[in-house]
Amino acid sequence: MRFRFIPREEHFFEMFVEDAANVLSAARHLEEMLRTYQDVEQRAKEIYAMEHHGDEISHEIGKRLNTTFITPFDREDIHGLISGLDDVLDLIEEIADTFILYNVSAPTPASIQQAAIITRQCELVHEALGKLRGFQGLETYWIEIHRLENEGDRIARAAVAGLFDEKTKAVDMVKWKDIYGLLEDCIDKSEDVADIIEKICVKHA
């Protein structure tokens, strides 16, 4: 039996895709949770399990990175990519948990729109990482992710402005400002991942 002491570098690409697929699954769960708003606590538990699984994937990539002399691209970019995906996943889990902690009776249309943007961004990141091995032809992905971030900003600004309606209770204003902020942060973090993918591709063009 032959043992491979140095992992083959292509395993990294497979693990990036696995990590992104897990993040995408969490994003879809969050969007579905808000669209139906049924079994909210169960949905949140499922997202928490995905966040835990994401930590395991990141740990495994870190271990592989420490035992690999030749990596597919710069180690700092690998760390940045994995950290970025972790940040998105952490925020998705925090958003789901906040809906429960704040005892939100129903999501707003704006929050559902924001969750849909997160899902679409995660879909694009997952697709892009599936093609990262070639380092080419990925411009459309990060351009669209940036466009979605701009759309998310517009939705967030309008939603927060709407909170200052005289009919909005003070406690609800505080709750929703926090929730809109977390959703916007998640959209921004997804854009950060797109920036890292762009950086990697530019370096290897």
Can you describe this structure?
This protein is an all-alpha fold and 205 residues long. The protein has helices at residues 10-36, 40-66, 75-101, 109-130, 139-162, 170-203. It contains 6 helices and no strands. Helix 3 packs antiparallel against helix 6 (170-203) and helix 4 (109-130) runs antiparallel to helix 5 (139-162). Mean pLDDT is 93; it is low at 1-8.
State the main characteristics.
205 residues, globular, disordered N terminus
Task: Reconstruct the topology from this structure.
Blueprint: H1 10-36, H2 40-66, H3 75-101, H4 109-130, H5 139-162, H6 170-203
Helix pairs in contact: 1-2, 1-3, 1-4, 2-3, 3-6, 4-5, 4-6, 5-6
Summarize this entry quickly.
The protein has 205 residues and is an all-alpha fold. 79% of the residues lie in helices and 0% in strands. The longest helix is centred in the C-terminal third of the chain and has 34 residues, at 170-203.
- Please indicate the count of domains: 1
Query: What series of H and E elements makes up the topology?
Result: HHHHHH
**Assembly of the depicted chains:** single chain
Q: The biggest beta sheet, please?
A: none
What value does the Rg take, in angstroms? Answer: 18 Å
- What overall geometry do the principal axes of the alpha carbons give? globular
